[in-house]
């Protein structure tokens, strides 16, 4: 077998790691994988529960899961015993309550199954219903935004039985992971899961009211269904370890563009390299064993950028699975001598990474409430649902924008590579035409049809053509039977955007149901309501180029908010409108919202502070010494040439020396300025004031330091440059 850059790879990775990499390549290429056999083998899923639990216990547990009934203590004990036996049979030695605090990543504390030894020194393996249902981690070290004082340490993790337990296999052994919610001693949500579960209850209750109005008496539950698409970068780990900025911040704080970037469009959907293919192969198998339906993999737009998409699942499960995906992507990368970068913008000037959140609402008996059918103009239920969603997004555009706000996403949104920072909805020609008919004449009489796509090649079949094209510049696009929210950052949990979507749509459904349930003539009332809502909120619809300056101007005329940064987005969490919305449906209390705003400000300030300090460290300890060394050698070279041949022309060397010296001086001044400003940032009052200062003062100072160093990279001999370049990182993988 021949490997790409064999000698170089061996040198960079090291002999031991290279051997492991080679073994993995050969094993993966010779191994036959039966996906059906391995899928879900590490999950305590419905099939396992049906097999291992007594029939009565299984029925009661399913009732708890499906109907939300309280779990009896005796049932919990039976489930815990079966779960422990299953896990131990598969090699598990420990269990953990696996939860999602407000850090954006998962947390776990491992406890072994062993009990205290008896008099003979023997131990028993124990796991009780109480241990399954409730845990007590220290809550003081997790973000709480003032909900908990440091000395108030107690917090609770509570088993979320709607998300199945699973086994995690890694260097620590096999661990039974129990998905849980996380709350404070006084009951406030300290995690991403609890509000999500609350929002799912809200939309379930209100969507059922809509269905009942249209005569549906069979559907018993409505669930938001989500399919996230995860983008990421892969770089060689040996090169990654030479970049302090990647290690400390997840992105490059310095770096000049290589001669070739993504302008040739040759990476997108291109042939997957063998090394990357071996990595993807292992990622897939790991995820399939965890019951994660990894479906689609491909090269993304930028060099070294890739995407993994999964099949739709209930929102709660989708959020858990996406956390597993991100964890697996990072874990498996190390086994292949790679590092996975999930940051939204690891390389300036190169396409960043997002996470498209595909959202729909479906019933327990298979009805997709966002399916328009063949003739949308006749589908009154769909038109009402659509009108409610338009209303929800228009009224709460600021909240939806905030749900996708993070430090990394500030580098991406509105940068002609991702959706603009302005929230709008793309519906396509077919639905926009139906809406135009309703708004102009009061009724819709037809729906545009797609027809046939003629290939012009005799051996190729004519294809059915969709009635609507797609729009990749829209932040919230209707794509057939779902909405694709394209703003979410690649690092983020998808919980926040789905909490917002579920809740704002629940509000719109409630307001519609409140009115229609009292109507004497339902058909007339629903017709008038659809027309009125569409006319009132039509401004949110935009099918054009979201990247254009013309749209920015048009959006301003329409009164649509253009929230450009995370700092500007955070205040929307605590407006009167937001508090009223979330409290009405029991998703957040005012205190929980205020705490989250505080955490967001703190997160922003801390992230920028780390980036600034990293830049200061790199500039002072790496770049300036490297350039001094280079200019010294250059000066010595000029003197040596002059001494050997006074008539020799050394103007090129002298010009280069002058340029480097000028840029070095600019670097030193910018470094001093950043150090002063960063010190001043630390003196600001914590919270919004500090975050605003970082945004308005620290970031410009960071950009001022980066500019001369990136220019120096283009003129300093590569031999002297202290770290791998962009070209080294994204093309040599």
Describe this structure as you would to a colleague.
The chain has four domains: 6-32, no CATH class; 37-191, Ubiquitin-like (UB roll) (Roll); 199-449 and 480-588, Glutamine synthetase/guanido kinase, catalytic domain (Creatine Kinase, Chain A, domain 2), CATH 3.30.590.10; 603-731, Four Helix Bundle (Hemerythrin (Met), subunit A). 48% of the residues lie in helices and 12% in strands. It is globular and about 100 Å long. The model is unreliable at 1-9 (pLDDT under 50). The chain has 733 residues and is α+β, with helices and mostly antiparallel strands. α2 crosses α11, α8 packs parallel to α16 (495-516) and α13 packs parallel to α17. The longest helix has 55 residues, at 590-644.
Helix content: 40-55%
Let me know the number of strands. Answer: 17
Any idea of the CATH topology of the largest domain?
Creatine Kinase, Chain A, domain 2
Show unreliable segments: 1-9
Q: Estimate nothing, just give the exact number of structural domains.
A: 4
């Amino acid at each position: 077998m021949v490997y790409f850059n064999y000698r170089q790879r061996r040198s960079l990775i090291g002999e031991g790691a290279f051997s492991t990499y080679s073994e993995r390549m050969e094993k993966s290429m010779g191994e036959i994988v039966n996906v059906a056999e391995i899928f879900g083998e590490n999950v305590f899923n419905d099939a396992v529960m049906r097999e291992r639990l007594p029939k009565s216990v299984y029925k009661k547990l399913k009732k708890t899961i499906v109907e939300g009934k309280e779990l009896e203590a005796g049932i919990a004990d039976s489930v815990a015993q079966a779960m422990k036996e299953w896990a131990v049979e598969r090699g598990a030695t420990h269990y953990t309550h696996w939860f999602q605090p407000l850090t954006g990543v998962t947390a776990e504390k491992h406890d072994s199954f062993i009990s205290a030894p008896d008099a003979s020194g023997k131990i028993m393996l124990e796991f009780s219903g109480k241990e399954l249902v409730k845990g007590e981690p220290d809550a003081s070290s997790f973000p709480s935004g003032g909900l908990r004082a440091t000395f108030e340490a107690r917090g609770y993790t509570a088993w979320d039985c709607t998300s199945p337990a699973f086994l995690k296999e890694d260097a620590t052994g096999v661990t039974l992971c129990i998905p849980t919610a996380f709350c404070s001693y006084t009951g406030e949500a300290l995690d991403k899961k609890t509000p999500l579960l609350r929002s799912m209850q809200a939309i379930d209750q209100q969507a059922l009211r809509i269905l009942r109005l249209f005569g549906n008496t069979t559907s018993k539950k409505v669930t938001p269904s989500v399919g996230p698409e995860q983008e990421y970068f892969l770089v060689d780990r040996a090169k990654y370890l030479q970049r302090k900025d990647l290690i400390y911040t997840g992105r490059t704080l310095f770096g000049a563009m290589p001669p070739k970037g993504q302008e040739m469009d040759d990476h997108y959907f291109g042939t997957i390299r063998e090394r990357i293919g071996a990595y993807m192969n292992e990622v897939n198998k790991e995820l399939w064993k965890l019951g994660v339906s990894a479906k689609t993999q491909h090269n993304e737009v930028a060099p070294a950028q890739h995407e993994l998409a999964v099949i739709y699942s209930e929102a709660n499960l989708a959020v858990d699975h996406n956390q597993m995906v991100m964890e697996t992507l990072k874990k498996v990368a190390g086994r292949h001598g790679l590092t996975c970068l999930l940051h939204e913008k690891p390389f300036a000037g190169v396409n960043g990474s997002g996470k498209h959140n595909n959202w729909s609402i479906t019933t327990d008996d298979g009805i997709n409430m966002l399916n328009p059918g063949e003739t949308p103009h006749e589908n009154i239920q769909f038109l009402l649902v659509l009108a409610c969603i338009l209303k929800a997004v228009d009224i709460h555009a600021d909240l939806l924008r905030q749900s996708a706000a993070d430090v990394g996403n500030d580098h991406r949104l509105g940068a002609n590579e991702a959706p603009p920072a302005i929230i709008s909805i793309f519906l396509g020609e077919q639905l926009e035409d139906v809406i135009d008919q309703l708004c102009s004449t009061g009724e819709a009489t037809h729906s545009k049809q797609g027809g046939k796509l003629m290939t012009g090649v005799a051996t190729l079949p004519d294809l059915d053509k969709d009635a609507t094209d797609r729009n990749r510049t829209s932040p919230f696009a209707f794509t057939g039977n779902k909405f694709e929210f394209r703003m979410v950052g690649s690092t983020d949990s998808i919980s926040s955007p789905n909490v917002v979507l579920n809740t704002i749509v629940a509000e719109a459904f409630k307001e519609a149901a409140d009115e229609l349930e009292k109507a004497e003539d339902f058909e007339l009332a629903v017709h008038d309501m659809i027309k009125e809502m569409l006319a009132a909120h039509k401004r949110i619809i935009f099918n054009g180029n979201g990247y254009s300056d013309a749209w920015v101007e048009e959006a301003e005329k329409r009164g649509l908010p253009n929230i450009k940064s995370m700092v500007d987005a955070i205040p929307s969490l605590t407006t009167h409108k937001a508090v009223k919305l979330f409290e009405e449906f029991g998703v957040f209390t005012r205190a929980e919202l205020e705490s989250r705003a505080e955490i967001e400000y703190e997160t922003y300030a801390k992230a920028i502070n780390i980036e600034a300090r990293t830049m200061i460290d790199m500039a002072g300890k790496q770049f300036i010494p490297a350039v001094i060394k280079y200019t010294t050698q250059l000066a010595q070279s000029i003197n040596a040439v002059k001494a050997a041949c006074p008539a020799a022309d050394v103007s090129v060397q002298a010009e280069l020396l002058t340029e480097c010296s000028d840029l070095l001086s600019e670097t030193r001044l910018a470094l001093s300025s950043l150090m002063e400003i960063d010190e001043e940032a630390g003196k600001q009052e914590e919270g919004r004031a500090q975050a605003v200062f970082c945004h308005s003062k620290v970031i410009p100072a960071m950009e001022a330091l980066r500019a001369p160093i990136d220019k120096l990279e283009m003129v300093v001999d590569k031999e002297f440059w202290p770290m791998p370049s962009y070209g080294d990182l994204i093309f040599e993988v």
